[in-house]
TrEMBL record:
UniProt keywords, alphabetically: Hydrolase
Domain AB hydrolase-1: 38-269
PANTHER family: EPOXIDE HYDROLASE (PTHR43329)
Region (Disordered): 1-30, 287-308
Cross-referenced Gene3D superfamilies: alpha/beta hydrolase, Electron Transport, Fmn-binding Protein, Chain A
Ranges in a coiled coil: none
A GO molecular-function descriptor: hydrolase activity
SUPFAM superfamilies found in the cross-reference section: alpha/beta-Hydrolases (SSF53474), FMN-binding split barrel (SSF50475)
Every Pyridoxamine 5'-phosphate oxidase N-terminal domain range: 317-438
Residues passing through the membrane, by range: none
Keyword Hydrolase: yes
Biased composition (Low complexity): 290-305
The protein's name in its UniProt record: Uncharacterized protein
Length: 441
């Protein structure tokens, strides 16, 4: 099958099966006999079905059938003009129609970015058609909405910009290569997507997904998902933050696995092996095989010591992934002084940024002891929050300062750049002139 029809539209689809499997549409009456389980792969913006090539190939080699459609607005034969045609019920209906056309009663569903949004909605509204759910990057829509009050709105500013008629298409057609390169997409994929969307008109459908969401056409107020779910989130994703990622667990009422990884947004293209491993773990679990073990919680109920190398690595990774931490230094009297700061992991150390005229620097020159503890944006530390002790040093030389600043910029993206610009506007010391490094233990 290379296409299917729904709602008067024609959708392109890549349908691949392992060599010894029977495609279900070829044997609709006996699909349970010797046929491959199906995995549906839903792309995001501004991608297409080809983003799944490496993932699909490995899933086929593992004995699974894959169905990867170009979704509404991306398939040339499925680009309706009205914004209302991109309401979430239509996007979900397109995937249900794909399952029907492929004679698949239940599939393992995988979605990335906007494809993840459709996957969440399909699993919530048609759980009988979903054997398992694996979502990459995109949190549950309700978690996303809640996180808007905790900084996510700053990451999602472009959604508001897309509401302007016609202008976003014209601007994005010119700026798309630069934007994708800046977001970390590999050069080959940058060229492919830039070529596909070189004409503003080709971006009308994809951008209409955002317009439909804001205008009420995309019903994102979904309830709890009741199918086994894995959520893979890149800690360096510039678009989707930690608050929504952590809150997603509240909206899954079945077996749930949260997998934070040291990666950015483009997981299908950059981390295909990781994606395949997580999908296969879900497939095995759904078929009665051993599922993957749940990773350690991101923020345990009690502070953890860091007395062993393995324990040190675990705490180091989790503190480096936190959105905010409280850094405590000590006055001559031993009195602790705690300041909320941004943090990133750089190898076996944590990196912080702080003004050069801060009293904290003077204290560290006398006493390099520090305590690092997960906190809220305003510096509030919850009881039992993850914590560790360490030794702090100042980055020495311009090269080391630039390296530390680059690590923080990769994690916090444009927010870090805005912070630096604000420092210049108010004629304060630039925060990237001083980089603080902390080694735990």
């Amino acid at each position: 099958m290379d296409s299917y029809r729904h709602d008067g539209l024609t959708f392109d689809v890549s349908d691949a099966a392992p060599g010894n499997a029977v495609p279900r549409e070829a044997d609709p009456g006996h699909s349970h006999l010797g046929s491959a389980e199906a995995v549906v792969l839903l792309h995001g913006f501004p991608q297409d079905r080809h983003c799944w090539q490496a993932v699909a190939r490995q899933l086929n080699e593992a004995g699974l059938r894959t169905l990867a459609p170009d979704q509404r607005g991306y398939s040339p034969g499925a680009c309706p003009p009205a914004v209302s045609d991109y309401a979430m019920e239509h996007l979900v209906g397109d995937v249900v129609a794909l399952l029907d056309a492929a004679h698949v009663q239940r599939a393992h569903l995988v979605g990335h970015d906007w494809g993840g949004g459709v996957a969440w909605a399909l699993a919530a509204t048609h759980p009988e058609r979903v054997a398992s759910l694996t979502v990459l990057s995109t949190p549950h829509p309700a978690a996303m909405g809640a996180a808007m009050l905790h900084g996510q709105v700053l990451r999602s500013w472009y959604m508001g910009a897309f509401q302007v008629p016609r202008l976003p298409e014209r601007l994005l057609a010119r700026q798309l290569p630069r934007a994708l390169r800046g977001a970390g997409l590999p050069p080959a994929e940058v060229r492919r997507y830039a070529d596909r969307f070189a004409e503003p008109e080709r971006l009308r459908g994809p951008i209409n997904w955002y317009r439909a969401m804001v205008r009420g056409g995309a019903r994102l107020g979904l309830g709890v998902v009741t199918v086994p779910t894995t959520y893979v989130w890149g800690e360096q994703d510039p678009y989707l933050g930690r608050a929504a990622a952590l809150k997603t667990s509240e909206f899954v009422g079945a077996d749930y696995r949260f997998v934070p990884v040291r990666a950015g947004h483009w997981l299908p293209e950059i981390e295909p092996r990781l994606v395949v491993d997580e999908v296969l773990a879900r497939v095995r679990g759904a078929s009665g095989g051993p599922a993957a073990a749940e990773p350690p919680a991101a923020e345990p109920a009690a502070a953890e010591p860091v007395g062993t190398p393995s324990g040190n690595l675990s705490v180091l990774e989790r503190l480096g992934a936190a959105e905010f931490v409280a850094l405590t230094t000590f006055r001559r009297s031993g009195e602790p002084v705690t300041t909320p700061m941004w943090v990133a992991r750089d190898g076996d150390e944590l990196v912080f940024t702080t003004p050069t005229d801060s009293g904290k620097i003077k204290r560290l020159r006398r006493d390099p002891r520090v305590r690092v503890q997960v906190c809220s944006r305003l510096g509030k530390i919850q009881p039992g929050a993850l914590a560790a002790d360490g030794q702090a040093t100042l980055a020495a030389g311009a090269a080391e300062v630039a390296r530390g600043s680059a690590v923080l910029r990769r994690k916090y993206g444009w927010q870090y750049a805005v912070m630096l610009r604000a420092e210049r506007l108010f004629k304060r010391e630039q925060l990237d002139r001083t980089i603080l490094r902390v080694r735990l233990g």
